[in-house]
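Q: I'm writing up a methods section and want to include an example of the input and output format. Could you take the sequence below and give the corresponding predicted structure tokens, formatted cleanly so I can copy it straight into the document?
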Amino acid sequence: MKIGILETGLLREEMAARFDPYPVMFERFIGLGGGDLEFESFCVIGGEMPASIDVCDGWLITGSRHGVYDNLDWMFPLADFVRELAVNNIPLIGVCFGHQIIAQALGGEVVKSDKGWGVGLHQYRIDQQHSWMGTDTDPISIYAFHQDQVIKCPDSAAVFLSSEFCPFAGLSYGDSIISLQAHPEFEDDYETALLEAYGGTVVPAQVAQQALASMSGGKHEDRQRLADWFVSFFLSRQQRQQARPSRQAQ
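A: Here is the clean output for your methods example:
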């Protein structure tokens, strides 16, 4: 199964010298879940869009430093692409910015939240158990780094993850689209580097310090569990996608 990664964010210069770009982070993260998956990335933020929704079997939209309300030129074809994927029931996962642009493209609303920055290790309730999530109903911990939030869900969306800070942390749309506000692709060293670099400037110093504290004391993100979710979601829909008549034949 081929997964297309739609790259909507670039690492800042000081981070790019130390860390892999977001598509590589996602490939490494999803690889933890096994499965016969291959990847191709498209630099959407640089104006590169796939030729069609059928170029890959499933899709993933990365995070970005930009807000969906910025209405940058590259966001409009991406929103159209999301709507086309939704109409054709092609598997799609969105993360952070990806979570937000899917919601906005399908009728939701995203704002810079008055709750401020959500950073560090956050825990989310499981409000709805999908088949690709297995049977574990314990809350799940994921690294977060965001200020924007979905504040109005599209009519087609259902909440499957939530917290007091982020009520719409995980959304599902039928059985073909899921999205997460937090960053399962972030590893410890990258989340730490972000907090150390932007604490006291972009992120208030006290908030950054509390976030760093949330990552200590034996607490950790549920990285393997999340990777299993992603792979199970994609692979469980592969057979259905293979049975779907090609758009050329329709």
